[in-house]
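Exercise 7. Given the encoded structure of a 314-residue chain, write a plausible sequence.
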């Protein structure tokens, strides 16, 4: 009986030792895994003091605010440089997005230096930022993607870009992607159609009409033709390419044929006076009540105007 009791006690002690050794092994493995996890973390997160992390974060936030301001300036000037190029050459650009990217990065339009882009391109901004960051022992590398233009209403152009940058400090490296956008009003800008097709002789500013009364719009056309939204007409961006395709963001005006004749252009008898049709599409227009002899309108546009009644042409 005593022998049996001794065996039971020995067995119990062995089980306790076994449990102890198992717990020790588990704890040891857990510690090893934890240390392994630490060694896989970036050196910056282990070695940086809190004030260094705060300084790095502050620099990054300042950089991103400056990047947005820089984009607003660079993109707006790049867009206006395309217009200036059309004004100087009286020729459209082949691809407005490609022209925008070229001006943004290189400061040129169709290979010609743009005065508005002097010291204002993406490389210029990067150089200035690195000069500033050098005093804080930091360097910046960056690239710009997705340089695009778009319109979500007839009177504004949205200029987009995506900035990918890497900011390096003594103990930390940040790599981030930052979407950038700004909107530019086209109100007050020259309509490329008039510049191109009048060879710069009859510039016309984009001014939205406060009325759709056909008689008021015809009267205004002797000074500056006014614009109405039109899904039948091309958008402002399309006009930069001399593209006459219809757009949901389209705009149209009345091209005053009398002014074109006075400036040495041929008389287009019977051609619709809707600007893009007058310039590029010999669409036969109908006559309207109480309008000048030169005025014609494509019947498909009559619903866009008020006080307009079609009559037989005499």
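Solution.
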């Amino acid at each position: 009986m005593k022998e049996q009791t001794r065996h039971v006690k020995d067995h119990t002690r062995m089980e306790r030792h076994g449990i102890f050794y198992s717990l020790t092994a588990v704890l040891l493995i857990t510690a090893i895994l934890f240390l392994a996890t630490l060694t896989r973390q970036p050196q910056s997160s282990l070695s940086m003091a809190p004030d260094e992390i705060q300084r790095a974060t502050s620099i990054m936030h300042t950089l991103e605010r400056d990047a947005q301001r820089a984009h607003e300036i660079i993109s707006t000037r790049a867009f206006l440089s395309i217009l200036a190029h059309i004004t100087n050459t009286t020729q459209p650009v082949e691809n407005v997005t490609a022209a925008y990217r070229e001006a943004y990065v290189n400061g040129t339009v169709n290979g010609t230096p743009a005065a508005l882009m002097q010291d204002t391109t993406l490389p210029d901004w990067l150089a200035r930022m690195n000069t500033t960051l050098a005093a804080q022992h930091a360097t910046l590398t960056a690239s710009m993607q997705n340089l695009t233009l778009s319109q979500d209403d007839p009177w504004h152009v949205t200029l987009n870009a995506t900035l990918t940058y890497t900011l390096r400090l003594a103990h930390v490296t940040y790599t981030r992607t930052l979407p950038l956008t700004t909107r530019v009003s086209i109100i007050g800008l020259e309509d490329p159609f008039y510049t191109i097709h009048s060879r710069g002789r009859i510039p016309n500013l984009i001014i939205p009409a406060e009325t759709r009364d056909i008689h008021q719009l015809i009267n205004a056309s002797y000074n500056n033709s006014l614009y109405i939204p039109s899904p039948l007409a091309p958008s402002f961006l399309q006009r930069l390419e001399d593209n006459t395709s219809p757009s949901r963001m389209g705009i149209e005006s009345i091209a005053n044929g009398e002014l074109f004749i006075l400036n040495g252009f041929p008389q287009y008898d019977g051609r619709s006076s809707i600007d893009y049709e007058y310039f590029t599409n010999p669409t036969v227009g109908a006559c309207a009540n109480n309008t000048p002899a030169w005025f014609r309108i494509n019947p498909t546009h009559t619903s866009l105007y008020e006080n307009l009644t079609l009559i037989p042409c005499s």
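Remark. The beta strands are 108-109, 112-113, 139-153, 156-168, 173-185, 227-229, 251-253, 287-288, 310-311. Students should compare their own answers with the one above.
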